């Protein structure tokens, strides 16, 4: 692994702040530098000491970085890559923690210099909370982190970044950006859209009676609207395709319910139960989930 | 409140066993009798001592009951009401804990004698777990319990049952059975159908990468398929109507995502976020949820 002296995180929210906190924990000799374009966030980050240094400008934040993590909403990456491009040290690795990967690769290729190496990262961690005050040094522990590469990806940079995330506690998978976006449309973006749809059709008074099932089913709908707007728009084709898929499944269930087809309805519910339980068992075996 | 000497629970699963356990806790002088048609469940219930007595026949289980709770899948109520009808003591209150209420009222009126008083109960508590081994004496603590009544409901029986559930820790709401079924279609039955649809469209390998958001969103899909088949079929018209509503919401989101309408997408996601957060704040104020 390349010797790391400094990592820089641009964007100090739940994910960004958790990266600096985790690095302080797992790489005590590595200097952590953070930057946020909001003065109030920089102030809060300093008070909370989430990084060794909070830079006042984006330029100085990256000047001596070995790895730069962009942890802002996806549609800000274009501008951020343009801003940092002239200031990246040669050999610097640039990555991001965005929930879609095709667009970040596209912008990286368009704006970053050849002397910097871009690899996409997507740590599948987080919560419906937002803000640096929720940053934790164990957020990535036992979470999957998907790294994305194309034909142009530098192999050594990919290796360094893989070792980095493993040391932060992640299980790493490497894939092409478009495969990533297809999978995430199904397992993350579509669930978010569905949770929002499920909440939006409800009536406030009736919701008071909702049980823990509804509370859990809808939890992700409490996630930040601006971040999710970016994510869904950055993966619009695949998310729209996912919506077609869930509508087809809902109509299948609706038909058997209306027909009163007990056998087929129980079969469909049992299939879901078995599939979800297999997932939970897998995650418990991997100690990603603890009973 | 009518003086209680004995309560009987027919059906010893998570809910049934939690009723007897809670009564042992909150009404130490009341005798609890349990019955299950499965010998293995009766044996387990005795080993776990979930009730003072586990009866060997349904007939003797109700013979001296002041309140009978039917806690079996909804479509078994018809047979159960027929079986217990000739053996109910005069003045006995009969209720159930089913997730729909129109059908139970219909069967109660058809099969129960005039000397017994039926009131519908629906404690909105439970989990994806099933079986008497998960029964807890605090399952109903701070949960809503909806009681359903019609023009024929005995006012004193309703009052007794209301006080009973309040003493078990519930917040009680009283409404007509068809209003109950409409509300529950939206806040409980539709979320279950949606979770099942969301799981069924997934691919097992991709699910390994799913994060905590998906785990929570899909939790209720791990609920027992037979119980949910009964619930959905017992409320089929309203559930089918709910599916139409969520499909309409999903299509609205799909349109703005495909159009790339950032403003409208963010407005829809923010509406969901605000509505869910209002629900969570309400539930925290009521101490139904604890941060």
List keywords for this structure.
homodimer; Rossmann fold; 6-phosphogluconate dehydrogenase C-terminal fold; 2 domains; six-stranded parallel β-sheet; three-stranded mixed β-sheet; 9 strands; elongated
Task: Annotate the secondary structure layout.
The structure is a homodimer of 291-residue chains.
Chain A (H helix, E strand, L loop, with lengths): L5 E5 L3 H13 L4 E5 L3 H10 L4 E2 L3 H5 L4 E4 L6 H8 L8 E4 L5 H10 L5 E2 L1 E4 L20 E5 L6 H13 L3 E5 L1 H24 L3 H4 L4 H6 L7 H10 L1 H24 L2 H24 L6
Parallel strand pairs in A: 1-2, 1-4, 2-3, 4-5, 5-6, 8-9
Antiparallel strand pairs in A: 7-8
Helix pairs in contact in A: 4-5, 7-11
SSE order of chain A, one letter for each helix or strand: EHEHEHEHEHEEEHEHHHHHH
Spell out the CATH superfamily of the largest domain in chain A.
NAD(P)-binding Rossmann-like Domain
Strand order of the largest sheet of chain A: 3-2-1-4-5-6
Q: Name the pair of protein chains with the most residues at their interface, and give those residue counts.
A: A-B, 89 and 89 residues
| CATH architecture identity of the largest domain in chain A | 3-Layer(aba) Sandwich
Strand content of chain A: 5-15%
Decide which structural class fits the backbone of chain A: alpha/beta
Helix content of chain A: 40-55%
